[in-house]
Design goal:
It is a single chain. This protein is an alpha+beta fold and 361 residues long. The chain has two domains: 3-55 and 82-106, Phosphorylase Kinase, domain 1 (2-Layer Sandwich), CATH 3.30.200; 120-360, Alpha-Beta Complex (Aminoglycoside 3'-phosphotransferase, Chain: A, domain 2), CATH 3.90.1200.10. It contains twelve helices and eleven strands. It has helices at residues 3-12, 55-70, 120-136, 155-167, 176-187, 194-200, 241-252, 263-277, 283-287, 289-309, 322-339, 341-360, and strands at residues 18-23, 31-37, 42-47, 93-95, 101-106, 207-209, 218-220, 227-230, 237-239, 254-255, 260-261. The longest helix has 21 residues, at 289-309. The protein is globular and about 60 Å long. It binds 2-acetamido-2-deoxy-1-O-phosphono-alpha-D-glucopyranose and magnesium ion (MG). 2-acetamido-2-deoxy-1-O-phosphono-alpha-D-glucopyranose (GN1) is lined by residues 27-29, 51, 149, 212, 214, 232, 235, 300. 2-acetamido-2-deoxy-1-O-phosphono-alpha-D-glucopyranose binds next to loops.
Length: 361
């Protein structure tokens, strides 16, 4: 066991003996560990301060969410959010000698995360869980949440960062793969501000969002299709539900072997999302669904590509071209979404009319 890590973990472990510390998950930003103790296990994380400029604020936001849930009856809550553990000195986080911020969270167990969806029942659960999350916090004042990551999912800001990076001397030599990415970005640049301009025009409402509802952030009960938790709450903040819907679908419906978009799964996820959260959705919310489904993978591709050009400072990598490959995969996914645009439009129209029928029944 790494003695430095063990020392930090012990600060959150009360008097429980620590048995083992293992890396947990495959997050690209924070360092996450599973701490096994003689008592309850917990999750230990070093928050990436280059990404989250005020790491402790992520905990303030989580406390706000927990507080909000305490005012709701138990039967109304179907998702468990992890509790924050305190240090022996009753702090929610600690700074180590190198000024890194560490925090510990409840290990929600028994549970499991999944990397691919294997059946429509799981997809339905994903849609329900995201809709339930949005509904649970739909009456939480967004002003109570700190913006832990300014500019997150604001695609025009990422585009500006890309232009700035491109104007400076690059950390890499441009090759054909780079040119493909650059061409793709150039061809689509007029669509970059679609969600932000709708938001600025007051067409889309700012609500409490998760920010990163990718498939492996939903925890399933073991050997079951039931979702019991939605984790990784650092990016919970005011934003558009479209960011979450787009992010959830780009992660759940991405077929990695060929970078195609699984329309059937998307339909199931969206239908169940709407069954849960449709009551808070407006006509305009439906009108921008296709744009969100296209834009969020485009944005992620742009973020990966910019990071590659800048020498991989943001996302963790295991080989130098990984961010370039990730960018190409996202852009190919976007192309497939574009190909399926008429079908996606039809699907949204049908979902909209079903939900109107339910609302007026
Ligand atoms: C990052 O660290 P992780 O994997 O939870 C990123 C998300 C991306 C995701 C892509 C704060 O999340 O926006 O969608 O990688 N989080 C942040 O895998 O930038
Ligand atoms: Mg995350």
């Amino acid at each position: 066991m790494n003695p430095v890590l063990a020392n930090i973990a012990q600060c959150f472990a009360s008097n429980q003996k620590i048995l083992q510390i293992k890396p947990l998950g495959n997050g690209l930003i924070n360092d996450t560990y599973w701490v096994q103790t003689q008592g309850d296990d917990f999750v230990l994380q070093k928050i990436n301060a280059h990404v989250f400029p005020y790491p402790e604020k992520t905990l303030d936001n989580l406390l706000q969410l927990q507080h909000h849930l305490k005012n709701l009856p138990d039967w109304a809550i179907r998702l468990k959010l992890p509790e924050i553990l305190q240090t022996t000195e009753q702090h929610y986080s600690l700074r180590d000698g190198e000024n890194n911020v560490w925090r510990a969270l409840e290990f929600i167990s028994p549970s499991e995360s999944r990397e691919t969806l294997s059946n429509p029942t799981e997809a339905a659960e994903i849609g329900k869980a995201l809709g339930h999350f949005h509904s649970l916090f739909s009456d939480l004042d967004t002003g109570l949440l700190f913006d832990t990551l300014p500019g997150f999912h604001v695609t025009p800001s990422y585009f500006q960062a890309y232009l700035d990076a491109s104007a400076q001397s690059l950390a890499v030599v441009e090759d054909d793969d780079c040119h493909r990415c650059q061409d793709f970005i150039r061809q689509h640049q007029t669509r970059i501000d679609i969600l932000e301009s709708a938001s600025q025009q007051g067409l889309l409402k700012t609500r409490v969002i998760h920010g990163d509802p990718k498939l492996n952030n939903f925890l399933f009960a073991c050997d079951s299709d039931v979702i019991i938790s939605l984790i990784d709450l650092d990016t919970v903040k005011p934003g558009l539900i479209h960011y979450d819907i787009g992010d959830c679908l780009r992660s759940c419906c991405h077929i990695p072997d060929n970078n195609r978009f699984d329309l059937q799964l998307a339909e199931v996820i969206l239908r169940h999302y709407i069954l849960e959260a449709g009551k808070m959705m407006t006509e305009a919310d439906y009108d921008y669904l296709y744009d969100a489904i296209w834009l969020i993978p485009f944005e992620l591709g742009l973020r990966f590509f910019t990071d590659y050009l800048q020498g991989n400072r943001y996302f963790k990598i295991s080989e130098p071209r990984e961010n370039l490959k990730r960018a190409i995969a996202q852009f190919e996914l976007c192309s497939d979404i574009e190909q399926q645009k008429p079908k996606l439009f039809n699907m949204v129209e049908q979902l909209k009319s079903c939900s109107t029928a339910i609302k007026t029944a």
